[in-house]
Amino acid sequence: MVDDHNRVINYLRLSVTDRCNLRCIYCMPEEGVTFTPHSEILTYEEMIHIVKLCVREGIHKVRLTGGEPLVRKGIAGFIQGLRNIEGLDEITLTTNGVLLKEFAQVLRECGISRINVSMDTLRQDRFYQITGRDFFDRVWEGINEAESLGFDPIKINVVAMRGVNDDEIVDFAGLTYNKPYHVRFIEMMPVGENNGWSRDKFIPINEILDRIRSLGVINPVCRNLLDGPARRYRLEGAMGEIGFIGALSNHFCKTCNRLRLTSCGHLRGCIFSDQKVDLKTPLRTGRDDDNLLNLIETTIRNKPKNHEIGLWGPRKCARPMNEIGG
Ligand code: SAM
Ligand code: SF4
Q1: Is 150's pLDDT higher than 70?
Q2: Which of 16, 151, 305, 308 has the most C-beta neighbours closer than 10 Å?
Q3: Residue ranges around ligand 1 (CB below 6 Å)
Q4: pLDDT tens for residues 267-280?
């Protein structure tokens, strides 16, 4: 379906849970995070029902996110259920990698071949400082397992933070010389009330790119339709790629094709907007599919033209990232 600003909306990010086994400082700090009661979280059956309706409205790609999608019980069966939805062409997953070693095989069997693993540091001690947990080795084992099982591409999401991990930008980029990974630098976003975002910590993608130039020649890679908002580059002679997601410094709203469904059943048109439509209540109170389809269409039509969040502006989204699914 096309929204009121002529954008084709065909991609749904589905947050399957707001729970997580890490406590990243920019997402879900140790203190102050509240969780949705289990009874308010959509069941898998409810999620499948809603995804089917979204597919009728033109969605053909779903990314599973969270919270940490692999901590929710029965996730493999759920993915199988999604696979049976006619018209849904692609299912992908964003994970923190902690459980990836255990799940990689089953994810492949479920037909997932593209994954994003979030990993903000190449240093064990720093991993603990950023995530509050000591799972550095497990994440790397997971990435290695995924590589050996042929996941392609494996995208490594790195949230760049000045004074936290910016001294590793060049090391992360250098990884792509010998590994086929797509390392994607993400600007830290001011989402949630308590995520520690500050202008001082923020690093714009142009600065990240400039720092990487110290490694050698870096060329843009031709974009294709499934690229989403990432600007893609390759260091000359490298196996892998480097991507940049500059939600703040390089608004990509004009080409935004996404909807988001939270684990508590809210459909959202924009990560930075608190506008949401409750699908769970009508679903649980027996409203028919036409009613739900109407709500989905309204959300698509009302998708904000762009977000106005900038380095100086006020926060626009009060809900935390683990709820919305980054
Ligand atoms: N737990 C999974 C993970 O970490 O990959 C999936 C959910 S997480 C919310 C999805 C993505 O959002 C991750 O790549 C994470 O780094 C990113 N993210 C979370 N909070 C962010 C923030 N404040 N700014 C930028 N990216 C953020
Ligand atoms: Fe968990 Fe992902 Fe948020 Fe980190 S970014 S706390 S891994 S949901």
Answers
A1: yes
A2: 16
A3: 20, 26-27, 65-66, 68, 94-96, 118, 157, 159, 186, 188-189, 191, 195, 321-322, 325-326
A4: 998 887 778 999 99
Give 184's strand partners. 157, 243
Domains of the chain with bracketed CATH: 11-324 (3.20.20.70)
Q: Reading across the β-sheet that carries 277-278, which strands appear in turn?
A: 218-220, 231-235, 241-245, 182-187, 154-160, 115-118, 90-95, 61-65, 11-15, 258-261, 266-268, 277-278
Q: Candidates 16, 17, 27: which one to mutate for ligand 1, based on the most atoms within 8 Å of Cβ?
A: 27
Mutate to test the pocket of ligand 1, among 194, 201, 321 (most ligand atoms within 8 A of CB): 321
DSSP H helical ranges for 85-168? 100-109, 124-131, 136-148
How far apart are alpha carbons 209 and 70 in whole angstroms?
Answer: 32
Residue nearest to atom 3 of ligand 2 (CA): 27
Read off the pTM: 0.94
Tokens of 259: 């909807």
Q: In degrees rounded to 5, what are phi and psi of residue 245?
A: -120, 105
Of the candidates 27, 244, 25, the one whose C-alpha atom is nearest the C-alpha of residue 127 is 25
At 18, the pLDDT band (50, 70, 90 cuts) reads very high
